[in-house]
Amino acid sequence: MIDDDARCPCGTGETYGACCGRFHGGRPAPTAELLMRSRFSAFAAGDGAYLLTTWHPGTRPASVELDPGVRWHRLDVHGTTGGGPFDDEGWVDFTAFWRGAGGARGTQRENSRFRREGGRWYYVDGVAG
Question: Does pLDDT of 1 surpass 80?
């Protein structure tokens, strides 16, 4: 878990409690980008339950296995298409950075698709870039 007063892993510069912590606590993210940022923070915190909860039921896997040897430490959002508070679909283009055992480092670039249903945003799928 992440301390509420710590800087949020998603890179907004806010504290975790004022940023992604509120979404992890049950408040719905108002935009696709904020949901994507909160999902990144869930990866950083090892919160697989949140990842499943925010995954669209049509594409959600039965379970999520997080690698405890991988530490997600930085997120760069390159842009968004749609995904605002009055949209029902949106895309978020980002790069996530990780560190692993033995000094291994890597990135994951993705353009993720989100859908809003019943007032909540869900991750649908993504295209690796």
Answer: no
